[in-house]
Write a structure and sequence with these properties.
- The chain has 6 helices and 10 strands; from the N terminus they run αββββββββββααααα.
- The strands form 3 sheets. The protein has a 4-stranded antiparallel β-sheet with strand order 8-7-9-10, with no helix packed on it. The protein has a 3-stranded antiparallel β-sheet with strand order 1-4-5, with no helix packed on it. Strands 2-3-6 form a 3-stranded antiparallel β-sheet, with no helix packed on it.
- α4 packs across α5.
């Protein structure tokens, strides 16, 4: 239950540290309650774009281990000099106390709600999961311009988590390219229009919707190995499926033709 905070500053009273902390925590607590069902990942902002090889991440809010963190300013990463053949990552960086690094993914040791981003070689990434990664790249990358480029290792944004209710999904950049592909697709299936409508409205798709689209295309027994790669593959297929009712009508039509024009068997 949300608490009601009554804070009054009577004339002549001393403002205490507790009063100031209560004023600071009240709106933060409210927002965290509103977003409690959302997964870890980007809550708002933190758009990623590339300008002349430089990667720019805009200010925003990120949820990690159930706690909200703020990236207060846009950050620019100069990649023009990174031609050493290494793979680099843009990784979230929290402000910790003196706890050893092996425990630093535990929220209890974080000292504030400000988050930073660092550009480091992938070999120096210390965490045992991908929740801190925004993107991976090699050299001076360029923004992918179609769905197939999303599967490239030159600029990999597939590990970036975007927060939705019930579970994370991919960054809106991914779905903007999928939307572009479906808009230019011929012989669209009705499910294609559902997907386009959902992306236009929410900017992203939940993973359950992506899975349902894959099964609709390849069948319920299809084994999903990489949900994004399989989803992109599914958008390539033309959904010209013959339904059971269509097949019955086709058979009935063939029977009517045979009655009017019986086949003559000759030796």
């Amino acid at each position: 239950m949300l608490r009601r905070y009554d804070i009054s500053f009577s004339r002549g009273n001393i403002i205490t540290q507790h009063m100031l902390e209560t004023m600071y925590n009240a709106p933060v607590d409210t927002i965290e309650h509103l977003l409690c069902d959302y997964s870890d990942g980007i809550i708002s902002g933190m758009d990623i774009r590339i300008d002349n090889g430089d990667i720019i991440v805009t200010a925003g809010i990120y949820k990690l281990n159930g706690r909200l963190y703020t990236l207060e300013n846009d950050m620019i990463f100069r990649t023009s000099q990174l031609y050493d053949g290494k793979t680099y990552v843009l990784s979230l960086k929290l402000n910790y106390d003196g706890t050893p690094e092996i425990n630093r993914n535990t929220k209890d040791y974080v000292t504030d709600n400000i988050i930073d981003i660092v550009c480091i070689p992938k070999t120096e990434y210390i965490y045992n999961d991908d929740r801190f990664i925004l993107c991976e790249f090699q050299g001076s990358p360029s923004m992918p311009y179609d769905c197939n480029k999303l599967l490239s290792s030159v600029f990999n944004i597939r590990k970036c988590r975007y927060s939705v209710i019930g579970g994370y999904t991919y960054h809106p950049i991914v779905f903007s390219l999928i939307l572009k592909k479906l808009q230019n697709k011929n012989n669209k299936h009705p499910f294609d229009y559902v997907i386009m409508t959902e992306i236009n409205r929410e900017k992203v798709l939940v993973r359950e919707t992506m899975s349902q689209y894959i099964y609709e295309t390849f069948g319920k027994n299809y084994q999903i190995t990489d949900i994004l790669a399989d989803f992109i593959k599914a958008t390539d297929r033309l959904h010209l499926k013959i339904t059971v009712s269509d097949r019955v009508e086709e058979q009935q039509s063939e029977q009517d033709i045979n009655k009017e024009h019986p086949i003559l068997l000759t030796r």
